[in-house]
Design brief:
single chain, alpha+beta, BirA Bifunctional Protein, domain 2, 16 helices, 35% helix, binds adenosine-5'-triphosphate
């Protein structure tokens, strides 16, 4: 189903998944806080990624510092090139990323059926490089400000997206450091440390999860483009010549990972990059169809030896690998998989959302909102209810709750009609609800109600741990 972004944002806030950062002070643009349920969902996504990456023979984990030596960012090219073209409208004072402004104008042309005009502009945009190129397109195509309609634009300037700060007490040029704009560089600079300490042979990978910061010109679409976010990146070091094989392999692995966690295949696609960075030999995005359209959630890139070679050049240290069989020395090539943990949180959230008509008690229908999270991702796995608050049911239900809570995130709820309690759990995506009723007291069985089918089954209460160990596996 298509759901509006407003619905997602308001459910996320109401049920404690995501809050605006510093909301009491009016909020801080592009920053979000993960509430009690959000932090569980985010941790589960990261845990699934970590397990998929590191519970195998050929990948090691790493957790590098956010602050790195500033030369890192000269070597990586971020100081010179990690910049977006920015333009201001003099009338509305609104600020835009020039390329996004043009892209959105092209989309508007297409929606009005002006395909030829849209194609011509898209062609020019593909070839634009300098600030002047973008400015000329905007002026010649007479692109108006979407807010005010004004065409009074400032020139385009490039704006570096890295957050700058100072290390130590003196604020001068020599103490400048950056909040990392990606986690990848922490992996590249530690390549030799990991290689030597873990006695690895190629091919092998290094995986890392961590915060990244980008001073985006326009933040938008909730968690999609934020200034502080989390990434899950893996660099796979390979023998030159094997890049196509491993690029194909990792693209497929990563695509399958999303499917294995319940992502709908029709809302997931792979788009190869049209424009490759000069050092890249292949690149593709895994995209999800968000309420606002298709957007990248993960990039898979074949980066040759660009990054290690640059760090070798800038640090003066050797980044070469000696092949143990042939004795040949070379700088390894790299296949990178780079996914936003917070951006994929939003994709999993949108993917899980559904509304459906179900029979209500007064023989009419009502709409139930369900987050159909994969059980591995669901923030709460189980809810336990006493049918009524008497006849020994609360005591029995509480004992079951305490036992399950030691192993899986479990909630206890004894307030309101049982139907309402189911709805509350559906809305946060709890896959299993257990009800303790009169029969429990008589024969020791409980009902398990399944979120998606709403079907119930009866099982012996003393088999619950065994049951959930099987369906929830390690979580
Ligand atoms: P975009 O073109 O959307 O800015 P990018 O191509 O610069 O993204 P990468 O540098 O390849 O993105 O980053 C890898 C992943 O990190 C992205 O696929 C996305 O999931 C996540 N990511 C990047 N920038 C942001 C951001 N500002 N907010 C949230 N997630 C982000």
């Amino acid at each position: 189903m298509t759901v509006s972004l407003d619905t997602i944002v308001s459910l996320a806030k109401r049920r404690g998944f995501v809050f605006q950062s510093s909301e009491v002070y009016g909020g801080l643009n592009g920053c979000w806080d993960f509430g009690p349920l959000g932090v569980e969902l985010l941790r589960n996504i990261k845990e699934q990624w970590w397990r998929a990456m590191t519970l195998r023979d050929d990948i090691e984990g790493l957790d590098a510092a956010i602050l790195m030596h500033p030369r890192t960012w000269h070597a990586s090219g971020h100081v010179e090139q990690f910049a977006d073209p920015m333009i201001d409208n003099r009338t509305s004072k609104a600020r835009y990323r020039a390329d996004t402004l043009i892209e959105e104008y092209i989309a508007r042309l297409r929606s009005k059926g002006k395909t030829a005009e849209a194609d011509a502009l898209a062609d020019r945009l593909r070839n634009a490089k300098t600030a002047d190129d973008y400015y000329t397109i905007i002026v010649e195509a007479q692109i108006p400000d979407p807010v005010s309609g004004s065409r009074d634009w400032t020139p385009v300037r490039y704006f570096n997206l890295m957050f700058k700060t100072y290390i130590g007490p003196v604020e001068d040029e020599s103490s400048v450091v950056y909040l990392r704009p990606e986690t990848a560089q922490g992996i590249f600079v530690n390549f030799k440390n990991v290689l030597d300490s873990s006695r690895r042979k190629l091919p092998f990978g290094i995986a890392q999860i961590g915060k990244a910061f980008r001073n985006e010109i326009n933040t938008k679409y909730f968690l999609f483009r934020t200034r502080e976010f989390e990434q899950m990146e893996m660099q796979y070091f390979i023998v030159p010549g094997s890049e196509q094989q491993y690029f194909d392999y990792w693209l497929e692995q990563r695509y399958q990972w999303f499917l294995s966690l319940g992502m709908r295949a029709e809302a997931l696609r792979v788009t190869p990059h049209e424009k490759l960075a000069h050092y890249a030999s292949a690149a593709a995005d895994i995209e999800y169809e968000f309420p606002f359209g298709w957007g990248e959630i993960e990039g898979v890139h074949s980066r040759t030896d660009f990054d290690l070679r640059r760090h070798q050049e800038y640090s003066g240290k050797r980044f070469e690998y000696t092949d143990p069989y042939t004795g040949q020395k070379f700088i390894p090539y790299v296949i990178e998989t780079s996914v936003g943990a917070t951006r994929s949180f939003m994709a999993f959230f949108c993917n899980a959302y559904s509304e459906e008509e179900v029979p209500s008690t007064d023989s009419k229908t009502e709409v139930r909102t369900v987050l159909r999270f994969h059980p591995q991702l669901a923030p709460v796995k189980i809810a336990v209810f006493p049918l009524v608050n008497k006849e020994g049911m609360p005591e029995r239900a509480e004992a079951i709750y305490r036992d399950l809570q030691r192993r899986w995130k479990t909630q206890y709820d004894d307030s309101g009609a049982i139907g309402r309690r189911y709805r509350r759990q559906d809305e946060i995506g709890t896959p299993y609800c257990i009800t303790v009723d009169g029969q429990t007291i008589a024969d020791g069985t409980v009902t398990i109600r399944h979120r998606d089918t709403m079907l119930q089954e009866r099982i012996a209460a003393d088999r619950l741990v065994e049951y959930f160990s099987a369906v929830l596996q390690h979580q």
